[in-house]
Amino acid sequence: MTKVIYEVVEHDGGWAYKVGDVLSEPFPSHAAAHAAAAAAAERQRHAGATDGIEYEDASGKWHREVAEGGDRPDTVLDD
């Protein structure tokens, strides 16, 4: 199972949560960023519908894949 780690960090004069190299929008307090990260992590654990997705990788190449709705990661909030 894939493990996704959410981390609360200082960002842009406030606080944000980070997953890998991706940052959320800034929040005014650590507590607000923590609550947003906890909510996002919880939502990511729940199964959804199997659906097609498209995304662009770091080199600018577009990909099309089928995302299995029941294949959910283990999420961790680390701050």
TrEMBL record:
InterPro entries with a match to the protein in the record: DUF2188
Chain residue ranges for the region called Disordered: 42-79
Pfam family, any one: DUF2188
Biased composition (Basic and acidic residues): 58-79
Protein's name in the database: DUF2188 domain-containing protein
Organism: Devosia nanyangense
Lineage of the species this protein comes from: Bacteria, Pseudomonadati, Pseudomonadota, Alphaproteobacteria, Hyphomicrobiales
